Amino acid sequence: MRVQDQLLARQLMRLRGDINKLKIEQTCHQHRRMLNDATFGLEEHDELSDLLCDGPLTPGFGLSAPLRLIGVTKMNINSRRFSLC
C-alpha cells in the first residue's frame, strides 16, 4: 500500500509539472503573438506614413487591441521588457 501511495504521489507531481509547463508555453505563445501584432502594426504605420502626408496621430495607433487592453501604449512599449521564453 505504501509503495502504491508513493507511485501515485510521483505521478501527481509529474502531472503537476507537465500542467505548469503547458501553462508557461501557452502564456509565452500568447505574448509572442501580441508582440508580433504590435510589431506588424508599427511597421504598417511606418509604411503608411511614408506614403501619406503627416497627419494627426491617434493615441495608440498601430498597437494591437490586446496590448492596449493591458495598458501598453506607444509611449511605454519601448521601456517594457518582454520575455519570449
Q: Beta-strand level of the residues, as a percent range? A: under 5%
Quaternary organization: single chain
Number of domains: 1
Mean pLDDT: 77
Q: How many strand units?
A: 0
Give, in order, the helices and strands. Answer: HH
Shape: rod-shaped
Which range best describes the helical content: under 10%, 10-25%, 25-40%, 40-55%, 55-70% or over 70%? 55-70%
- Total helices: the number is 2
Sheet with most strands: none
Structural class: mainly alpha
Task: List low-pLDDT spans.
Answer: none
- State the end-to-end CA separation: 41 Å
Rounded to an integer in angstroms, the radius of gyration calculated over CA atoms is 22 Å
Can you tell me about this structure?
- The radius of gyration is 22 Å and the shape is rod-shaped.
- 65% of the residues lie in helices and 0% in strands.
- It starts with a helix and ends in a 16-residue tail after the last helix.
- It is built from two helices and no strands.
- The chain has 85 residues and is mainly alpha-helical.
- It has one domain.
- The model has no long low-confidence stretch (mean pLDDT 77).
Highlighted features:
single chain, 85 residues, mainly alpha, 2 helices, rod-shaped
What is the gist of this entry?
By secondary structure, the protein is mainly alpha-helical.
Blueprint (SSEs and pairs):
Elements: H1 2-51, H2 65-69
Family: Belongs to the FAM167 (SEC) family.
Protein name: Family with sequence similarity 167 member Aa
InterPro entries: FAM167 (IPR024280), FAM167_domain (IPR051771)
